Amino acid sequence: MSTGWxxxxxxxxxxxxxxxxxxxxxxxxxxxxxxxxxPEGREFIYHTENGLLGMGPPPAEDERDLDLMNAGKKYVTTxxxxxxxxxxxxxxxxxxxxxxxxxxGTMQVAANGDIANWSTGAPDxxxxxxxxxxxxQGVRNIYVIxxxxxxxxxPKLVEKCSYPxxxxxxxxxxxxxxxxxxxxxxxxxxxxxAPGITxxxxxxxxxxxxxxxx
Amino acid sequence: MSTGWxxxxxxxxxxxxxxxxxxxxxxxxxxxxxxxxxPEGREFIYHTENGLLGMGPPPAEDERDLDLMNAGKKYVTTxxxxxxxxxxxxxxxxxxxxxxxxxxGTMQVAANGDIANWSTGAPDxxxxxxxxxxxxQGVRNIYVIxxxxxxxxxPKLVEKCSYPxxxxxxxxxxxxxxxxxxxxxxxxxxxxxAPGITxxxxxxxxxxxxxxxx
Amino acid sequence: MINKKSPSxxxxxxxxFDGAVVMVGGFGASGSPIELIHALIxxxxxxxxxxxxxxxxxxxxxxxxxxxxxVSKMICSFPRSSxxxxxxxLYREGKIELELVPxxxxxxxxxxxxxxxxxxxxxxxxxxxxxxxxxxxxxxxxSYVMEPWLEAxxxxxxCEVADPxxxxxxxxxxxxxxxxxxxxxxxxxxxxxxxxxxGDIDPEHVITPGIFVNRVVEVADPVHEDTLxxxxxxxx
Amino acid sequence: MINKKSPSxxxxxxxxFDGAVVMVGGFGASGSPIELIHALIxxxxxxxxxxxxxxxxxxxxxxxxxxxxxVSKMICSFPRSSxxxxxxxLYREGKIELELVPxxxxxxxxxxxxxxxxxxxxxxxxxxxxxxxxxxxxxxxxSYVMEPWLEAxxxxxxCEVADPxxxxxxxxxxxxxxxxxxxxxxxxxxxxxxxxxxGDIDPEHVITPGIFVNRVVEVADPVHEDTLxxxxxxxx
Lengths: 214, 214, 236, 236
Known about the structure:
The complex is a heterotetramer, with two copies of chain A and two copies of chain C. Chain A is α/β, with parallel strands linked by helices. Chain A has helices at 7-16, 87-95, 132-138, 199-205, and strands at residues 23-26, 45-48, 52-56, 77-84, 101-104, 108-110, 115-116, 141-145, 157-158, 171-175, 179-184, 187-193, 210-211. In chain A, the strands form two sheets. A ten-stranded mixed sheet of chain A has the order 4-3-2-1-5-8-10-11-12-13. A three-stranded mixed sheet of chain A has the order 7-6-9, with no helix packed on it. In chain A, helix 2 (87-95) crosses helix 3 (132-138). Chain C is α/β, with parallel strands linked by helices. Chain C has a single domain (17-121, 150-230), classed as Glutaconate Coenzyme A-transferase (3-Layer(aba) Sandwich). In chain C, helix 2 (34-43) packs parallel to helix 3 (61-67) and helix 5 runs parallel beside helix 6. The A-D interface holds A 48-52, 65-71, 73, 84-88, 90-91, 94-95, 114, 124, 126-134, 137-138, 164-169 and D 27-31, 77-81, 87-88, 91-92, 98, 100, 102-108, 110-111, 122-130, 170-180, 207, 224, 226-227.
């Protein structure tokens, strides 16, 4: 039985939907892989919220600059045409709607576009939100890349998030290992199935009503 | 009969009250003369709200830079340690209380510290406010330099301004050709008389109750 | 490669539409994008709302645009100056509307639009006629007025150095409102004295990051409003 | 001549008082003013409220200050990370208070304090538990929450180049919150790698104008938090 797309294939599929010249902010994890799959003839400019536009790939270990990191606190480089700025300017880019696409990982996403990716809400959890709530409210297109279910097989695409929300009604498209899915006024709607995956398999793994591809 | 201090003497007297190291914004007219009378051993840093800290004296005519002006749209220079910034940062310096002293001219100032220096309120006047209302609300110490009366002999220090206010209760000290006057909870209070000027002369030229020097 | 370069000032302002809200950089003559403004005069868009600190001088640039009957409303802090004749005349004739905004509030409202802040509180205008009709509120025992963001469809801006990604630097006090306007307009159009390759501007020295800029057109030898006025020039 | 130079990090932080609100620049390790923080540990002020994006790593810098029992409250956006052990432990034991603020709201609240803006509206947190108890309001059909400014008594900041007037530049992404904190604190204390003469920094390249800075102390060869942690260092 097919398990659908790999992490790399999910990232590559998401990259296909990002227009040339887009300003893009990538969350930690699978979203970071998008940089490896920019389609031929396109150029994306990467924003990292700690104050850099024009982020380049990670440096060789002996070429690290301790003062050049991304929001995930990993060492990065810059591309020609980069710029540095302070945090208020950086979040003006986010909140002011200047970033075209944000690709995020998630714990849950609901049929109405709600996203929960910052806290399990567990009583002993130490809450930590970072820039997630600014990103989901500010960036024009919020894409999610995620495994379709948790490691224990629970659906991550649900009718209603059980975890505390990061933002309500903000997600427009979801890339899972099984399918590309849009959030529509009618709920989840399959756009494309991964090779070897049937709609019934997707439906079974989804915790909400989902419509087949048109 | 003495007419008291000259314009230059008023500016010099005001300069005496500005502490060493102050960040100072000067209004158009007599206040601009303050730069010529910085007391020995003191240094002031001049802010001009169109985006320059560290403003220097006017340039020689053949050394003008068309892109280097002050808020009065006069050509200026810079001193070592100057910096340029945009208008939001410039008015953050003002509104955020970072400028120590602002010296302004005025049309009227009232015994409670109200100032009116932006509009006569005449029906055919074209209202123009510039940065005056930001300055009077934002700068810690608002000093006024003004002739004690108008050209036609009307008092400029009044019980209540008849012109539209620039800001309420903001002026702390006034330098006129006749005297240095504080705005106190009890109203105008003479601090110092110009040479040859009597308290009675000041009182006669003032449109409000005024207290003699303590 | 991303390239925001426009072939000409005419092409750069081509799509400014009737009724558009247009921010114009500059403080008086300093930083005024004269070539872009004159291109807008040639282009002819009407019923514009213009946002600038002033209303132009003499009969060139902003003043010429107003004189040409293309502007129905002006949002500014200081609409009169010694060289300003066009606006005062039209205003007295009731032919142009004026929204007077204190300079610091004007700058902050423009920044707020660029930063996604729909409104903020400021002490400026409290206790004056300019606060009339505005919502007021106390914080920590002091009164403040609420001010909304100020957005625009287009911004016309002059800079010193630009690259094809739209990264900009300015010259001295010609910077003024321009970086804020770049943030606040849907379409930001920039004329630059020097167009350099991406990477030629030190990332530490970029004042306006390219994300805020849509079009860049090189005007290598821009005229200065003060020079035009000294020559008694008029446009068109 | 105006000279904001402090003779030592110890002298620079001398007057930090018990109960003070202290902003500390840096985003994780990048831009963290380790020498100033360690001087504050030596100085011993207690019951501090600390404002930083994070809560420090390992047992140096911010984490060491917290471990030393000097901090009663932390205001930050992301209090846990892979190397962060001190804060989580104290928080779980109920020994330190936490105010969690989204990163963009944290930056904007700090800027607002520096800019004299007592409150503003942001869409961030709308519809989430972090908006509970906050005033909400609609503008143009969209909901926003009101957020107040965030002031401090002191800011501790690391920069790359400074002059005796307090003009500053930063290095790459070590800039982050520091320019905003310089604006928002009553007393801003800066450690700089290079102290140059007034005029040596191009006025176009100044990031923090000297008006926002009170003290500058040269730390020519600063340690980096990441290096200390790699070495397994602890302080004191």
